[in-house]
């Protein structure tokens, strides 16, 4: 057994402790070599060294300073949905280069590089899963992939997820982490704001719940479209959320901004979000919110066919 | 070259020729050599003019789109409607003058017009905030959209903005939410919505009043996810490369028409709208009427669906 | 011919000049003796002396300083609706004393005194009239009657007017001038805010136009209910409009308020109203607004039976 | 007399007697005369207590309604629901803490609660603005009402406010419109709405969250078009006559029940809710359940009609 396998096993065991009745099958998102070989992680906030495995167990929250470090799209989903219930959809919707865009580097190359460095195929993962046995449609953004920027693929996958939620009458959860619209697809990226918001109009009129989770960082065209349209808006502590970036604003108004400007706490104080929730409370809060928003609806029923109807199952999941 | 029009840099050759021609023409009598020169100059002028305006780069178009004498929303409104009842305010504390709106009439049909509005001088621009709306401006727009929906009025939006204002108060008052909500609510309307980009279509700040059944663009207008300068600063690491960024971003009316975003390119007089405002407004009005005629025949549900489908289709990706 | 008759005639002639095709019948609101005997009126704003008759001709706007002086409820209506078309309704809904209220003076006595001093039977006149041949439901408040305060009668008459507007599919115009809810009817007055607003919800959902005209002064429970619920909010120049009174606010916040605070112009600047309209433009503006809001509606048609259907015709009107 | 309860002026006699009784009881052995005295004092105490609480003047009730130890919205919420997810903000720039709202559960049904909230000390009252909401507070309330409507949740509002805040910013942000819009929109909801006045029902500021299918009032709560002091200042020309004004205005729970405005008077423990918070909350909960059971059987249109008819009938006038 090599070092890699050792860590894989170790992580599995740790995970097993967290998850009740977690069957001993392989973790769906296999940690990269780099991750596995890194025994220690330095906290980005307080610089303390932390056991990587322990940090993961703590949902990547620093035990010294409570810093919520960045998660991959899949880690987010794993932390929120019941183990083994997530079924990714539209994993095969992939980016292209509609404008043959090139700056200092061709967009095509950037896409390739992004895929390599993030181990993700685009800046969002979408699918169906359950939270405490309540099925939800869930999308999670991948900041490592070109800053979680929204181009055609992100817009398309979110729109399809919303359409699926409407069709299956499922609550929707979107987890944002993004610098905004993706410049390299020009106007097509901008229009994804309208596309996703238009789909959300249908979801809204269908009376379905949409919880939007805003995580560090969420900006620009993502904030100014689907991320701010949740029935309930939840943010992680200290996440920075806004429309324009801090530097742009400072250049425009030529004054220093308050230190807490655009933090989750600032947004709460300014009436923009419903709650700031610690990562360790997130699953319970989401579970409660889904229950509270569905139990009154006599028309609501658990759709047993739900999982079976999902055509596109990319991973071997416990169904 | 029309007098009292501020020339753009790429128009400078024309300006020089035009001056020379004028000087020659001032002379009461011309010697033969001069006559010949005048004719040559005029030929050269026409050739230069054709060259310049037929080969405008995307960034040249940006310059025309931002020309300080380009017609603004109030100009269009005054030309296309016999009257304008401006409606003010978001009802909750502010009347943002970067966005104007109110009732106009076209062929006996009442129409709600909502537009971004720049100023022509420092004082006006203080009032109009250089055409950069605050959240309250978008909320005023939303109020007027809902008003139009209630009274079965088609909506025309006129767009020319560098973008939504990036300020401290704008963030504190939730610029993001104001834009997002407009995107969602515009998508659900059951009246015709026609958006006309007549200058700069500045990103989300433009789109917030631009989720329409038809997007029309004036020939020299642009519409972009980010300003060429902003894009250059990030991707080329210098604002100097704005011209390259403008080209790469595909932001001209023609680009957007080819990408299937713009439904029509409204022609402008040679040199740009500011060379003949009457003619431009006439073109705009006839284009509005054409599209309105079609949309007026659809019922509410059809209109909503038509609009949603327009945006549903946008985006390029591969699957497999 | 006595002095009184002389003035009556004079006024009629003046009025005749204003109104095209005004038939030589008696004016509906007969000016009181006092008015008739007052040749001159002093402008409340600039103190200039003005011919009373001339002032009336100028719609009670001072030609020197443009001060819009107070009008009676009927004068308002006469200035706005086509001559002879106004038919009052519910003129026989009269106040009572539900709480047997008495402060330094019994409420009953106040009611009697109010009727005498204002020549009005309550603080509002409601009815149907037309503006440039467009029928409208119109209500006009009488500030002279206990400060235009809203008690049961005002609430009831407004509610009935709204109900009539819904039934006949008429645009609604309400002209406010009020100190707020009437204390002497206690909680019943407060509840008129809910009653009128509830009726306006039905009007709103019926897709009908409601123009609210705010005149000097409009405060308290009137502003905080029907007066602020117009689709279009119009105010007369310099009219003071607000929720709390200036003195109450100054006492609460312990600072001086800006001079233009709570004026129509201040409200316009603060995004609270659509327009400030000079009294001389009002009829044209209202006429245009009614036309602009009804011409698109294919379901809208001029209801010929409209006037005939109104059962309660208090005055001999040109029908 | 319970210890650590701040006595009101009309309770002073009780307080004196209670002290005397306590002193006597402290003594280890009592002479016969003292035993007799103790019995007399206790009789006197009970008689005084009965006299006082059975003959409370309207203004005495005002004092109880404003008692600094009276249970507030959060107390009720914590007692009647196993959990409370508070939802914050108007989405446009402010989270007014004078109004709180969020999700609670009663018998497995999710309910939206919206309430005015006072503070118990200076610091809390700075945060809560003494329970006087700003326009943004009412807009937060409206957002939550619409949320409840979307998700088919009954609404319970808990009311205790001196009134809407009369401030410069409140006026600039259109306090009137915020209240008016809530009145109109509450009237149109298709979910059950139950309002409970648990302290001061302060005029329009209370009504703005009080257009309900059922208005319930705690025994010692009041609900008035104007505060007794304000009314006295205007009509009697001195605030000193507040007690007379309180009487004339008919503001007690019993008055409102008799006037057909309040649908039920919820009993309080002797002396007022602050003498036994548990019991009070139990009474409130059982009253809520009773009315909810009835309203839950109506469909959306019936609920809207039921609410509108309740207010349609209010008002007394003569006709003829
Ligand atoms: Zn740390
Ligand atoms: Zn004057």
Describe the structure in your own words.
The complex is a heterotetramer, with two copies of chain A (319 residues) and two copies of chain B (320 residues). Chain A is of the alpha/beta class and 319 residues long. Chain A has a single domain (70-312), classed as 2-enoyl-CoA Hydratase, Chain A, domain 1 (Alpha-Beta Complex). Chain A is 37% helix and 16% strand. Chain A contains twelve helices and ten strands. In chain A, the strands form two sheets. A seven-stranded mixed sheet of chain A has the order 3-5-6-7-8-9-10, with helices on both faces. In chain A, helix 6 packs parallel to helix 7. Chain A is globular, with a radius of gyration of 19 Å. The two termini of chain A are 30 Å apart. The model of chain A is unreliable at 1-28 and 299-319 (pLDDT under 50). Chain B has 320 residues and is α/β, with parallel strands linked by helices. Chain B has two domains: 9-55; 62-313, 2-enoyl-CoA Hydratase, Chain A, domain 1 (Alpha-Beta Complex), CATH 3.90.226.10. Helices cover 49% and strands 15% of the residues of chain B. The longest helix of chain B is centred in the first third of the chain and has 23 residues, at 32-54. The termini of chain B are far apart. The interface between A and B is large, with 63 and 57 residues. Bound molecules: zinc ion (2 copies). One zinc ion is lined by residues 43, 45-46, 48, 62, 64-65, 67 of chain C.
């Amino acid at each position: 057994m090599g070092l890699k396998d050792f860590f894989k096993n170790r992580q599995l065991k740790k995970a097993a402790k967290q998850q009740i009745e977690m069957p001993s099958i392989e973790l769906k998102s296999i940690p990269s070599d780099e991750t596995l070989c890194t025994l220690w992680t330095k906290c980005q906030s307080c610089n303390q060294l932390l056991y990587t495995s322990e940090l993961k167990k703590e949902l990547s929250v620093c035990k010294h300073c409570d810093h919520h470090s960045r998660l991959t799209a899949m880690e987010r989903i794993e932390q929120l949905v019941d183990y083994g219930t997530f079924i990714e959809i539209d994993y095969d919707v992939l980016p292209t280069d509609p404008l043959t865009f090139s700056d200092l580097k061709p967009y095509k190359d950037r896409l390739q590089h992004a895929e390599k460095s993030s181990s993700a195929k685009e800046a969002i993962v979408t699918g169906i899963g359950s939270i405490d046995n309540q099925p939800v449609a869930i999308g999670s953004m991948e900041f490592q992939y070109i800053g979680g920027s929204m181009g055609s693929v992100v817009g398309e996958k979110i729109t399809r997820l919303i359409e699926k939620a409407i069709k299956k009458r499922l609550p929707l959860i979107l987890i944002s982490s993004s610098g905004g619209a993706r410049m390299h697809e020009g106007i097509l990226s901008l229009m994804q704001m309208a596309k996703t918001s238009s789909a959300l109009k249908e979801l809204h009129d269908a009376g379905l719940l949409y919880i939007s989770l805003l995580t560090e960082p969420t900006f620009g065209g993502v904030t100014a479209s689907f991320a701010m349209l949740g029935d309930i808006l939840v943010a992680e502590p200290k996440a920075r959320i806004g429309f324009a970036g801090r530097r742009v604003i400072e250049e425009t108004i030529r004054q220093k901004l308050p230190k807490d400007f655009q933090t989750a706490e600032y947004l709460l104080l300014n009436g923009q979000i419903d709650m700031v929730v610690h990562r360790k409370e997130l699953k319970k809060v989401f579970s409660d919110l889904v229950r509270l928003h569905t139990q009154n609806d006599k028309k609501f029923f658990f759709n047993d066919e739900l999982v079976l109807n999902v055509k596109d199952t990319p991973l071997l999941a416990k169904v | 070259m029309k007098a009292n029009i501020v020339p753009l840099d790429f128009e400078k050759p024309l300006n020089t020729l035009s001056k020379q021609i004028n000087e020659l023409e001032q002379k009461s009598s011309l010697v033969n050599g001069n006559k010949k020169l005048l004719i040559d100059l005029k030929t050269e002028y026409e050739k230069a003019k054709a060259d310049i305006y037929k080969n405008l780069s995307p960034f040249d178009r940006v310059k025309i789109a931002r020309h300080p004498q380009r017609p603004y929303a109030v100009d269009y409104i005054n030309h296309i409607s016999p009257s304008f009842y401006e409606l003010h305010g978001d009802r909750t504390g502010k009347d943002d003058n970067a966005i104007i709106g109110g009732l106009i009439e076209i062929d006996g049909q009442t129409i709600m017009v909502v537009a971004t509005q720049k100023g022509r001088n420092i004082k006006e621009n203080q009032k109009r905030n250089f055409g950069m709306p605050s959240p309250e401006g978008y909320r005023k727009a939303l109020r007027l959209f809902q008003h139009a929906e209630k009274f079965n009025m088609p909506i025309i939006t006129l767009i020319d903005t560098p973008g939504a204002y990036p300020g401290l108060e704008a963030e504190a008052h939730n610029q993001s939410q104001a834009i997002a909500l407009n995107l969602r609510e515009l998508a659900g309307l059951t009246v015709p919505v026609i958006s006309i980009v007549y200058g700069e279509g500045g990103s989300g700040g433009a789109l917030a009043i631009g989720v329409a059944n038809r997007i029309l663009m004036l020939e020299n207008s642009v519409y972009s996810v980010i300003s060429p300068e902003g894009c250059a600063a990030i991707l080329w690491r210098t604002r100097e490369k704005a011209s390259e960024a403008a080209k790469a971003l595909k932001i001209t009316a023609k680009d957007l028409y080819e990408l299937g975003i713009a439904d029509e390119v409204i022609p402008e007089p040679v040199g740009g709208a500011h060379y003949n405002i009457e003619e431009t407004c006439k073109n705009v009005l006839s284009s509005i009427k054409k599209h309105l005629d079609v949309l007026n025949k659809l019922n509410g549900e059809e209109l909503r669906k038509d609009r949603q489908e327009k945006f549903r289709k946008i985006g390029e990706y591969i699957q497999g």
